[in-house]
Specification:
This protein has a domain at 109-154. Helix content is 54%, strand content 0%. The protein has helices spanning 5-15, 36-50, 81-101, 109-125, 135-154.
Length: 156
């Protein structure tokens, strides 16, 4: 059988090797980063080095870095469990007393508004030319303001 020109083309095409894919322009054989967090971590460390800090934050205070081991201690500071529990209770009470200092003096938003209105009422009672309010009138005014605000927001 005689081979024609078309047969030669077909044979040449069958012998040609084609890749399974075409490599995109951005493709990198061995990328420096495989995730965004790797890049941001390196940027964070390089920024810290640039300003003269350690790459990662390290607490180097020896008082804070007590060695957390399970080794035997000959003379521990609280030498009994009951004394340990008592010292912990005392420490917790000290912390709670710090928090309780500001507890009584805290005034919420409504309290501040009422205090301001009472102050205005006291000032107007002293003879200024403004309209004076007593507590009942202030309460009615607040109710009307609340009703107006709700009708604006939600309708009738």
């Amino acid at each position: 059988m005689k081979k024609g020109r078309n047969d030669e083309k077909i044979i040449a095409m069958q012998q040609a090797t084609f890749k399974d894919y075409y490599r995109p322009q951005e493709f990198v054989e061995n990328p420096k980063y495989n995730a965004i967090w790797e890049r941001s971590k390196e940027k964070y460390e390089s920024d810290r080095k640039l300003i003269g800090l350690n790459p990662t934050p390290i607490d180097i205070n020896p008082e804070k870095l007590v060695d957390p081991t399970l080794t035997w201690r000959e003379n521990p500071v609280p030498y009994s469990q009951s004394l340990l529990m008592e010292t912990r209770k005392q420490d917790m009470l000290k912390d709670q007393s710090k928090f309780e200092k500001n507890f009584e003096s805290h005034i919420d938003g409504q309290g501040r508004v009422e205090e301001r209105e009472n102050c205005i009422a006291r000032l107007t009672f002293k003879g200024l030319d403004t309209v004076t309010y007593n507590n009942r009138m202030l309460k009615q005014r607040r109710i009307h303001e609340m009703i107006d605000d709700m009708t604006k927001k939600f309708g009738n």
